[in-house]
Specification:
homodimer; alpha/beta; Isopropylmalate Dehydrogenase; Rossmann fold; 2 domains; 12 strands; binds 3-isopropylmalic acid; leucine biosynthesis (chains A, B); magnesium (chains A, B); amino-acid biosynthesis (chains A, B); NAD binding (chains A, B); Isopropylmalate_DH (chains A, B)
C-alpha cells in the first residue's frame, strides 16, 4: 500500500520521539512492502519561532491531503509563565482540532504487568484495568467565547455544547462499547448537578441509549470519577466525557499505566485522523535523547490499524512489549539502567 | 463560652453523621463548661420535600445569627437522573455559599498510618503527605450565566472571575502558607494555556506573590495536577485553585486518606463559617447507621478551633485518633468488623 503521512514534530521532545516512530514506519514499509511518504508541517512554539503563527495554513493543507497525521507534542514554558502572551503554541493544537473537526480524542488506558512497580498504586488494584476514554475535543470551554477586561479586572470563558456535538461522539463511544472485545458498559462523566451543559450531555446520552440495548449506561459526577479512577479503575470500560473533564481525567488515568510516556491517543473526526502520544512537550528533557518514544510508537500502531494494517500494528505492539519485558527502557522507567530514546527506536525497528 | 450553632442536617447520611457531632459537642460543653445552643435549618432535597424550596430564607436567617454552621450533606438520586428537573437540592448549597459569601472551601488532606492499607496507593507513597486545598467557592462556572435552548438543541455555562474574587482567596492561601507549621509553598492549579480566566488567576497570583516573599509559588496545569496528586502528593503544601478544578482535585486527593468518610472541610467567607464533611449524601447508606461520622466530627473539631477552643479541638482529634487506632471503625473502613455510626459517636463523646 501507498500512504501519505503528515508529520508534525512540534515542540520539546516532540521531534525526537516522532523520529523513532518514523524509523518504525520505515521498517514496517520494508517488511510488508508498503510505501510511506512523509510531508512535514509546522505547529506550536516551533511554528511561532519560524513563522509567527502557531499553525500556518500550509500545515493544514498538508494534513488535509494526507492519509493520517502523526504529531509529537506542543508547548513551551516561556509562554506558560506569561499570562499576557498574545500568541501561544497551544492555539495551534486547538485550531488544528477545530479545522479538521477532530471531535473525539480516544485514549486507551492499559497497564503492563512488567511496569506495575512503577505505578504508585498497589499491583492488586491494577490487574484487569482496561478502559478507553472518549474525550470530546472540539467543543466546550476550550472553544467558547473568551473575554477579558482591558484593565485586567475580570475575565471569562464560556462553555457551549450542541446536541449534535454530543450525539456524534456518543454514537462513536456506544459503537465502540459494542465491540466484541469490550464489556458493553459506557460511563458518562459529567457534572449534571451543577452545569447546564452537563444536563444536556446526560439528556442526549439517555435519549440515544435505547439504540444500543446491549450497552449498560452509567452516569458519574466528575468529582466522583476522579476518585473512582484511583479507587476502582477496573469498573470502567468505555468512558465518555466533555473536553475539559476529559483533559483532567485522562491524564489522571495515565498514572495507572506506570508512565505517561507509554500512552498513545487518536483524535478522530470527519476527515484525516491525528495520532499523538498523550505526554506533553516535556521541555526539560528536550534534545537529551532520554524521552520515552513508546507513546509515539504506540500511536503509530493505532495509525497502522486505522490505515487497515492490522498485522503491521500487531507486530509493532509485540516489539514494544518485547522491549518493555526485556528491560530495554528509557530513563522515566528505569533511572539507573536506561537506554536512549534513539536506541529504543532502533531496537523496535530492528525487531520489526 | 456560649455559642449558637446553626445545624443543617441535609440529605442522605447527613442527619445521622451530624447527630454524632452534636453528641461530641455536648460532651465538650459539659467537660469544658461551655454552652452550645442549636438551631436547625432545612436545606437540600429534605427542604424541597418539606417546603418546595432547596434553601428557605429562614435557614439563611438562622445561619446569619449563628456563630458557626454545622452541615451534613446534600443530594438525592431522584434529581441526578432527571436532567430536566427544575428544582434541585444542590441549588440550596450553591445559594447558601453565595448568600453567605463562603468564598473559600478549605480541605486538609491527611493520611493516617493505621489506614494506609485502605488506600489503593503503596504506603511509601503516602508517608509525609500533608497538604491543604483552598478551593474558590462562590465564582467560576458554578455561578456563571446558564442557558439552554427551548428545544434542547444546545446549552451553555459561563465561567467568570474578577480580580477581587481571586485576590481575597489568594491572600487567605498565602497567609496560610506562611504559618509556622507549613512548608511555605503555594501551588496554583489552573489551565492558563487554554482559559482566559486561568490566565487572570495566574496574573493575580503573580502580582500579589511579592507581598509574601517567604512563600515559593508554583504554577501547575490542572491535567498535570491530577497526575501529580497521585504520583507525588508529598510535593504539595498549600494548593490554590478555582471552583470547578477544586471540586475535582479535592475529591481525587481524598483517596489518599484511605476513606472519603474521614475528611472535614471549612467554608469561610465574610460572615458565618460553615463546616461540613467532604463526603456527599451517600443515599445507599442512609438510615442504616453504617455511615462514617468522622468527617463530620473532624469538621466539628475545625469549628471548635475556629470558635477559639483549641484545647477542645485537640481533644476531639485525639478521641478520633484513638478510635481509628483501636479499630473502632465503621463499615467503610472495615467491612467485616465494624461498629455502627451511633456507636462511634458514643465512643468519641465518652472519650471526651
Ligand atoms: C496542550 C493542551 C492545550 C492540551 C489540552 O488541554 O487539550 C493537552 O493537555 C492535551 O490533553 O492534549
Ligand atoms: C453537591 C455539589 C454541588 C458540591 C460541589 O460540586 O461543589 C459537592 O460536590 C462539593 O464538593 O461540595
Amino acid at each position: 500500500m501507498q500512504k501519505h503521512i503528515a508529520v508534525i514534530l512540534g515542540d520539546g521532545i516532540g521531534p525526537e520521539v516522532t523520529q523513532q516512530s518514523l524509523k518504525v514506519l520505515d521498517a514496517v514499509a520494508e517488511k510488508f512492502g508498503h510505501e510511506f511518504s512523509y510531508e512535514y508541517g509546522l505547529m506550536g512554539a516551533d511554528a511561532i519561532d519560524k513563522t509567527g503563527n502557531p499553525l500556518p495554513d500550509e500545515t493544514l493543507e498538508i494534513c488535509r491531503r494526507s492519509d493520517a497525521i502523526l504529531f509529537g507534542a506542543i508547548g513551551h514554558p516561556k509562554y506558560d509563565n506569561d499570562p499576557t502572551a498574545k500568541v501561544r503554541p497551544e492555539q495551534g493544537l486547538l485550531r488544528i482540532r477545530k479545522e479538521l473537526q477532530l471531535y473525539a480524542n480516544i485514549r486507551p488506558i492499559n497497564t503492563y504487568a512488567s511496569l506495575h512497580h512503577l505505578c504508585p498504586l498497589k499491583p492488586q488494584n491494577l490487574e484487569g484495568v482496561d478502559f478507553i476514554i472518549f474525550r470530546e475535543l472540539t467543543g466546550g470551554i476550550y472553544f467558547g467565547n473568551k473575554q477579558k477586561a482591558e484593565d485586567g479586572s475580570s475575565a471569562s470563558d464560556s462553555c457551549t455544547y450542541t446536541r449534535e456535538e454530543i450525539e456524534r461522539i456518543a454514537h462513536l463511544a456506544f459503537h465502540f462499547a459494542q465491540k466484541p472485545e469490550r464489556r458493553k458498559k459506557l460511563t458518562l462523566v459529567d457534572k449534571a448537578n451543577v452545569l447546564e451543559t452537563s444536563r444536556l450531555w446526560r439528556k442526549v446520552v439517555q435519549d440515544i441509549a435505547p439504540q444500543y440495548p446491549d450497552v449498560t449506561v452509567d452516569y458519574m459526577f466528575v468529582d466522583n470519577a476522579a476518585m473512582q479512577i484511583i479507587l476502582n479503575p477496573k469498573q470502567f470500560d468505555v468512558v465518555l466525557t466533555e473536553n475539559m473533564f476529559g483533559d483532567i481525567i485522562s491524564d489522571e488515568a495515565s498514572v495507572l499505566s506506570g508512565s505517561l510516556g507509554l500512552l498513545p491517543s487518536a483524535s478522530v473526526g470527519t476527515g484525516t485522523v491525528l495520532f499523538e502520544p498523550i505526554h506533553g512537550s516535556y521541555p526539560q528533557a528536550a534534545g537529551k535523547d532520554i524521552a520515552n518514544p513508546i507513546g509515539s510508537i504506540l500511536s503509530t500502531a493505532l495509525m497502522l490499524e486505522y490505515l487497515g494494517m492490522n498485522e503491521e500494528a500487531k507486530l509493532v505492539r509485540k516489539a514494544v512489549e518485547w522491549t518493555l519485558s526485556s528491560k530495554f527502557v528509557t530513563k522515566d522507567i528505569d533511572p539507573l539502567n536506561y537506554y536512549f530514546t534513539s536506541t529504543i527506536g532502533d531496537l523496535i525497528s530492528d525487531f520489526v
